[in-house]
Specification:
Radius of gyration: 25 Å
Largest sheet: 6 strands, parallel
CATH topology of the largest domain: Rossmann fold
Number of helices: 24
Distance between the termini: 55 Å
Length: 612
């Protein structure tokens, strides 16, 4: 067996450069598109030197915060629909634990990212090393063990030869549609620089492809029978439609069988917004017409969605039989579902072929259209109420931006009020125009995600929408984007606090407390100049006074060659109607009458939940 002598770090880097992905058209691309790195004690000498040797094949990008650079990597993989991956590496200690939140984002949203945090000395001789957290009960524990529950695969490398088995297993976690998520290779810092005679076959070119699983014949027959018995079915389109690249199959299936489609956060823009069978956002952040259709349906075909509580209305929205068409068996049995374990594309094709000329009742789509007309009237009233003399709502800002950007635009957002308003009001002219992280609802994802999305889709216009709360949590990637010469627009909605949670506080009977800046226990209120701050980081920025100025500023930003930031004040109290019930626990005991009343209401409302 031929071998090549390399350090562990060099072997890792060399391995990554020899992994490719095969696309549907048969072409091949490097599977790993780049590495995000902040070097420090624990990765600069070993991994840093190894990455330098392969910088022409595997570019390394410098981040400003370990969490945000991992967010950029995650957003890239999500935008590439999980068919290309990025890497993030950090030092030991705080550099590593900064990435744990990002690992959770990837884990919950099922997005592949390879995380390589530095770790302590495997030898144990320099003990404790700088940044090491000692466990007095377990001498083998390090802070990197925090990655275990938020990684699909975790391996601490304490000997060079462990890479031989660890890396192929990590690749499975990164590429398998059912298991997909973050893989963490924790690299002890002394081992990174130790040499080993690795087998040359380890570095042979390997091509990975999207595994497409066809449905089991029994499950397919069972599913077909259930659909044929239905008169008022609905399709819930989830992120699996996007990751399977099954948008055309979804469109053809819905049209052939005349079935309304509603969209989750991850599935939104699977179908163009103006398609006659697209009834919009479903669930707590959804619109009334989609939720009416979902509630009245006598069959729910959930395609590529885990049906988390915001989509299912805490297990209250769907009153009928659920079919789960999903690559992950664990998802396929949720909500008493009939399982149909399959790739979304192959599953929809097989179902359509087996259904023949089946179509929903003629009156079903007409009924759904009447519900949509009612919602359109409500939506129109909300949006047209904006004028240049009042502080706009988040919904009005969303609509104004949506009306101003290019047809190929991708909107990027994550947490707070915006996921609800975007889910309701953002209309994508093209598929893939909606990029929301709402599985983990991670504040601070937005701007770094804009970097990742622009790297993944440089031909598309990218607009990041972020609240002032999230902006304050993580904004340093404005400087990252500027230094990389990227072009995109950031719209900052300043409602002077955490308005989404303030409204939730009020809805559960609580007093306005510690959410909006005006309700905090401070000596005074900070007058934050977001536009000035963004300008200091290198962006072109402006603070606008109203919706008219907002449209003009976003239009001007499209002509700017770099990062543009547009700031606008918004009304913290307004939220668009249309969603469904969501379970939130309210205290049983309180001195406030409002809390007690809300608790009684919550107990009564809980009766609408299905058993499981």
């Amino acid at each position: 067996m031929k071998t090549i002598r390399l350090t562990t770090g060099q072997a890792l880097a060399k391995f990554l450069t020899h992994q490719l992905v095969r696309l549907d058209d048969g072409s091949e691309l490097p599977l790993f598109a780049g590495v995000w790195a902040i070097f420090g004690h624990g990765n600069v000498a070993g991994i840093g030197e190894a990455l330098y040797q392969v910088k022409d094949q595997l570019p390394t990008y410098r981040g400003h915060n370990e969490q945000s650079m991992a967010h950029a990597a995650i957003a890239f993989s999500k935008a590439r629909r999980r068919q290309q991956i990025m890497v993030a590496t950090s030092s030991i200690g705080p550099g590593a634990t900064n990435m744990v939140t990002a690992a959770a984002v990837a884990h919950v949203n099922r997005i592949p990212v390879l995380l390589i945090p530095g770790d302590v000395f495997a030898s144990g001789l320099p003990d404790p090393v700088l940044q090491q957290a000692e466990d007095f009960n377990d001498g083998s524990t390090t802070v990197n063990d925090a990655f275990r529950p938020v990684s699909r695969y975790f391996h601490r490398i304490t000997r060079p030869e462990q890479l031989i088995q660890a890396l192929p297993k990590a690749m499975v976690a990164l590429t398998d549609p059912a298991l997909c998520g973050p893989a963490t290779i924790s690299m002890c810092q002394d081992v990174q620089s130790q040499a080993f005679d690795y087998p040359e076959v380890m570095f042979e070119k390997r091509v990975w492809g999207l595994r497409r699983q066809a449905p089991d014949s029994h499950e397919l027959a069972q599913t077909v029978a259930a659909i044929k018995a239905a008169k008022k079915p609905v399709i819930v389109a989830g992120g699996g439609v996007r990751y399977s690249r099954a948008e055309n199959e979804l469109k053809q299936f819905a049209e052939k069988h005349q079935i309304p489609v509603v969209e989750t956060q991850a599935g939104k823009s699977s179908l163009q917004a103006d398609h006659s069978l697209n009834f919009g956002a479903v669930g707590v952040t959804g619109v009334s017409c989609a939720n009416t259709v979902a509630s009245e349906a006598d069959l729910v075909l959930a395609v590529g969605t885990r049906l988390q509580d915001f989509i299912s209305g805490s297990n209250s929205l769907f009153k009928s039989q659920v079919i789960q068409l999903n690559v992950q068996p664990m998802d396929s049995v949720k909500y008493r579902a009939l399982p149909c374990v399959a790739d979304a594309r192959l599953g929809l094709q097989s179902l359509s072929d087996s259904l023949g000329e089946y179509s929903s009742d003629a009156g079903w789509v007409s009924y759904a259209n009447k519900s949509r007309e009612l919602w359109n009237d409500v939506q129109n009233d909300i949006i047209t109420a904006a004028d240049d003399t009042t502080t706009p709502s988040d919904a009005q800002v969303v609509a104004a931006v949506n009306q101003t950007v290019a047809e190929n635009a991708v909107v990027v957002a994550a947490a707070g009020s915006l996921p609800s308003e975007l889910h309701k009001h953002w209309n994508s002219a093209q598929t893939g125009g909606y990029h929301l992280e709402y599985g983990y609802s991670c504040m601070g994802y937005e701007i770094s995600a804009g970097v990742g999305v622009k790297l993944a889709e440089p031909e598309r216009e990218v607009v990041v929408m972020v609240g002032d709360g999230s902006y304050m949590m993580m904004n340093s990637d404005i400087a990252t984007a500027v230094s990389m010469g990227l072009k995109f627009t950031i719209v900052v909605l300043d409602n002077h606090g955490f308005s989404c949670i303030n409204r939730l506080q009020m809805a559960t009977g609580g007093a306005n407390f510690n959410n909006l800046l005006r309700d905090t226990h401070h000596e005074g209120l900070a007058d934050i100049k977001f536009a000035d701050h963004a300008r200091a980081l290198g962006a072109k920025s402006i603070h606008v006074a109203n919706v008219g100025e907002l449209k003009a500023a976003v239009k001007a930003a499209r002509k700017h060659s770099g990062v543009s930031v547009v700031v606008i004040d918004t009304d913290p109290m307004h939220a668009s109607p249309g969603g469904c019930w969501w379970e939130v626990e309210v205290p049983e005991v309180s001195q406030r009458k409002e809390v007690l009343e809300k608790h009684e209401a919550a107990v009564a409302e809980r009766q609408q939940q299905r058993g499981y």
